[in-house]
């Protein structure tokens, strides 16, 4: 654009290109995910799209911070190796620091809800849960880090640990509170974007730049989705199908995060042009891509109306009919790194921070006995047998080998009880914050028992 005279060379620099690319990498498929939730789209597709958008947002936020402080000594608008590695160091430091602050507040909240009687005061418990989560954002901003990333990781870890410690009444109140705040925030940010589009005094509309930006985000989206899906499928038996990949490509909306990053600094003409372009991209992608989601789902033949519990029951029935329990992909194909993390989390972290998991007296060495007794919740002893049954779905490769070998000697039978309430694969998620949608419980037993 500089060479063809559309932008002056003194107005748009190398760092401006990096900054615009970083903020445009933040996908925000809120509209698509809301439609997915309403239509009960295949849970695998929902999980892939949600996880990708969360990771993109976190990286984009930290990356824009790092580019903003990129400052070579001689010329701040050209590439400099030393300044580049300094920015990489800032990126790693900001990301790690924000993660540490978010998880630290989770640890504090989890221990407070575990070792106090806050469960007797549901309103106070919910208020403390909210205030400490919000404090993660404030502390990160005060420390010069990114509050959004801190509260993101705080929310992820709070849902996995602290939510399990809340009383049933507090769980209901907390869930409703955050659903309401989520709804309110989404409406507010889109109202604010609409207001900024018509009231911002320094809009710079450059047709070539806007067109180039639209083309670039779709080309970059394709270069992200298809090659990464291909690489992932090399190591997966449960492949990411082509219709899922096309839907993920279609769902590359831009939204609140891109707008928030663009409006932070509008001091130069380049930044003003970025804000104008970002607003147009956000509105057009939300209207066009968000509005066409239902039609695209139909055209790509993606399943809707999927009930996760019915899917589980059907899978168990199929395994019982074929006599092959080794086909459970979600259980048997867990990556070794995930398997190691799950074992460590289940044996040590959860028992320390929550009422879940086995007693620490059974997992820690004998010489840690006094500490284990202090940190172990009384509920852990009461629920030890129940928790053992809940976690039987998550088996290691060695356990799988033993179980599969044993099937050659004794056939397996599957019992489905309609009165038990929640299927085993959902029981632990129920304690971690998922209210559960199941109506069946399956248990695998030996026919000779």
Automatic annotation (TrEMBL):
Native organism: Erpetoichthys calabaricus (Rope fish)
GO terms classed as biological process: regulation of intracellular pH; sodium ion import across plasma membrane
Spans traversing the lipid bilayer: 12-36, 48-71, 83-108, 128-156, 177-198, 204-223, 275-302
NCBIfam families: b_cpa1
Source species, domain of life: Eukaryota
Record gene name: SLC9A9
Family, as annotated: Belongs to the monovalent cation:proton antiporter 1 (CPA1) transporter (TC 2.A.36) family.
Keyword annotations of the record: Antiport, Ion transport, Membrane, Sodium, Sodium transport, Transmembrane, Transmembrane helix, Transport
Region Disordered: start-end pairs: 416-449
Membrane topology reported for the UniProt record: Multi-pass membrane protein
Residue ranges annotated for the Cation/H+ exchanger transmembrane domain, each copy included: 9-299
PANTHER family, per the entry: SODIUM/HYDROGEN EXCHANGER, SODIUM_HYDROGEN EXCHANGER 9
A GO term for molecular function: sodium:proton antiporter activity
GO CC terms, sorted: plasma membrane; recycling endosome
Name the UniProt record assigns to this protein: Sodium/hydrogen exchanger
UniProt xrefs under InterPro entries: Cation/H_exchanger_CPA1, Cation/H_exchanger_TM, NaH_exchanger
Signal peptide: none
Gene3D superfamilies (UniProt xref): 6.10.140.1330
Compartment(s) where it occurs, according to its Swiss-Prot or TrEMBL record: Membrane
């Amino acid at each position: 654009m500089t060479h063809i005279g559309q932008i002056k060379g003194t107005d748009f620099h190398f760092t401006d290109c990096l900054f615009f690319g970083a903020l445009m990498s933040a996908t925000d498929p809120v509209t698509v995910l809301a439609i997915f939730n309403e239509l009960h789209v295949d849970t695998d597709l929902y999980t892939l799209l949600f996880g990708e958008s969360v990771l993109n947002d976190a990286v984009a936020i930290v990356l824009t911070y790092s580019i903003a402080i990129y400052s070579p000594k001689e010329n701040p608008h050209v590439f400099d190796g030393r300044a580049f590695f300094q920015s990489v160091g800032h990126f790693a430091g900001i990301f790690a620091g924000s993660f540490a602050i978010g998880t630290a507040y989770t640890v504090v909240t989890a221990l407070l809800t575990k070792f106090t009687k806050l469960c007797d005061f549901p309103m106070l418990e919910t208020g403390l849960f909210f205030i400490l989560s919000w404090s993660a954002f404030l502390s990160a901003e005060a420390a010069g880090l990114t509050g959004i990333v801190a509260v993101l990781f705080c929310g992820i870890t709070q849902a996995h640990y602290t939510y399990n410690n809340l009383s049933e009444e507090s769980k209901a109140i907390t869930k409703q509170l955050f659903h309401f705040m989520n709804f309110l925030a989404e409406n507010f940010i889109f109202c604010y974007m609409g207001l900024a589009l018509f009231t911002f005094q320094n809009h710079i509309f450059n047709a070539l730049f806007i067109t180039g930006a639209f083309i670039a985000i779709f080309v970059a989206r394709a270069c992200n989705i298809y090659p990464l899906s291909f690489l992932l499928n090399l190591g997966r038996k449960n492949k990411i199908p082509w219709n899922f990949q096309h839907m993920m490509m279609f769902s590359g909306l831009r939204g609140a995060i891109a707008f928030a990053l663009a409006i932070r600094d509008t001091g130069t003409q380049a930044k003003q042009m970025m804000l104008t372009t970002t607003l147009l991209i956000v509105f057009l992608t939300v209207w066009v891509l968000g509005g066409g989601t239902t039609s695209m789902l139909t055209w790509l033949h993606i399943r809707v109306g999927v009930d996760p519990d019915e899917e589980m029951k059907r899978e168990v029935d199929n395994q019982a009919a074929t006599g092959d329990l080794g086909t459970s992909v979600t259980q048997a194909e867990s990556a070794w790194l995930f398997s190691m993390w799950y074992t460590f989390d289940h044996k040590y972290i959860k028992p320390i921070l929550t009422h879940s998991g086995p007693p620490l007296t059974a997992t820690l060495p004998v010489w840690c006995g006094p500490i284990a007794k202090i940190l172990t919740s009384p509920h852990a002893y009461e629920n030890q047998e129940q928790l053992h049954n809940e976690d039987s779905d998550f088996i290691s490769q060695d356990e799988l080998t033993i179980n599969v070998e044993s099937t050659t000697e004794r056939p397996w039978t599957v019992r489905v009880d309609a009165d038990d309430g929640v299927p085993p694969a959902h029981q632990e998620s129920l304690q971690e914050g998922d209210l559960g949608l199941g109506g069946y419980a399956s248990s695998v037993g030996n026919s000779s028992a």
